Amino acid sequence: MNKNHEFRSLKNSIAWKSVAKIVIYTLCTIVIISVLIDGIFNDMLANYIYEIDNDIYLFCIKYKVEILIVLYVAIFTLISFVVIRKLSNYIIETTSAMDKILKEPEKEIKISKDLIVLENKLNNIRIDLIRSQTLAKEAEQKKNDLIMYMAHDLKTPLTSVIGYLTLLTQENEISDSLKEKYMNIALDKAIRLEELTNQFFEITRYNLQNMPISKKKIDLSFLIDQLVDECYPMLQKKNLGCLINKQNHIEFFGDGDKLARAFENLLKNAINYSYENTNIEIDIKQVDNKIYIKFRNKGDKIPEYKLDKIFDKFYRADESRTSSTGGTGLGLAITKEIIELHDGSISVKNDDDIIEFCIELKIL
User: Fold this and answer.
1) pTM of the model
2) Dihedral angle computed from the Cα positions of residues 94, 96, 101 and 107, in that order, rounded to the nearest 10 degrees
3) What DSSP line would sit under 248-316, residue for residue?
């Protein structure tokens, strides 16, 4: 509404200024010409015409009023043409400014003072364009870096799989224990290769899919129990325990698959970043019409500036982690999106070596 008002005011201002210019310029010109013809140069002009031709002189005397009217109309037309032509210059000026925004967005736009409102709008558009281009370049660079990073890591386990399988097929005399060792190594590398491939699919889904949700009544307490059971081998590998503090049968209307994915991301994140031989704690409780779910683990302290970015796409709080221990940096970003799709919120805090993610869901 304000924008329409500004442009309407600009349009009216230009129109009134143009009309005023035409009227004032015309009146001033008419007054000056009238003074010159009937005043200062009256006798000189009359004598000059008389000397040229007596008939023309008599004609001018007889039709003086009509001749002056034609002259004044011609002056009015000429002045109107000049003023209106200047208005068309505004269009050309605005078009040129828009082209300049596209070609040289870093340069400030300067146009006529009459178009100051439009100038401000164009500069705001220019600033928004620069910001959008910067964000797009950063996102593209992050994605390119990630793809290069993962392409390299795909090649590493694949090379190992091929190498060990080649040894198994080419070596005729090889002990059973060595065969088993090579097969286990090849299997581990193949599993890692599958994990990396799944991460590529994760990236594709995150960027090309709007995550539609299908809601139904689910038991969040039971869902958490299931996830912990499924992650038992990962917990055992780092000798981690998982303590669940929960109320039974906390029901929520939501997408079970998507929420399971979000909780699994948080649990795997806690496993990856926990100290060995420690416990991961999961609290789930309902207070009135709100459900609170907390994932807590003991690990290295995360600096405050990294906590602010922890839910960003492709961001990894620990850049020193290798691909074998860390993910793509999408897990927490996806988790946040899923929680927000359920009209909930998620936050993180880090006190000393305790990292805690807190989810809040509303029961509608």
Assistant:
1) 0.50
2) -100
3) S--EEEE-HHHHHHHHHHHHHHHHHTSPTT-EEEEEEEEETTEEEEEEEEE-PPPPHHHHTTTTSTT--
Token pair 């304000």 is found at 2
Q: Which pLDDT score, from 0 to 100, does residue 320 have? A: 44
What is the average pLDDT score of the chain?
Answer: 81
Whether the per-residue pLDDT at 254 is higher than 90: the answer is: yes
Q: List the single range of 43-57, 215-229, 307-321 with lowest mean pLDDT.
A: 307-321
CA dist., res. 242 & res. 190, Å (int): 28
244 close to 269: Cβ distance less than 8 angstroms: no
Cα–Cα distance, 149 to 264 (Å, whole number) = 24
Q: What is the pLDDT of residue 324?
A: 44
Residue 357 has pLDDT above 90, yes or no: yes
pLDDT for res 111:
81
SS3 content of the chain, % helix, strand, coil (to 5): 65, 15, 20
Q: How far apart are CA 348 and CA 359, in angstroms?
A: 9
Supply the pLDDT for residue 321. Answer: 43
**Secondary structure of residue 356 in the 3-state scheme:** strand
Delimiting residues of CATH 3.30.565.10 domain(s) in the chain: 216-362
Q: Which CATH entry fits the domain spanning 146-208: 1.10.287.130, 1.10.10.10, 1.10.8.60, 1.10.390.10?
A: 1.10.287.130
Q: Residue 6: is it exposed, middle or buried by C-beta count within 10 angstroms (0-12/13-18/19+)?
A: middle
For the domain made up of 216-362, give the CATH fold: Heat Shock Protein 90 (3.30.565)
The residue-averaged pLDDT of 11-29 equals 83
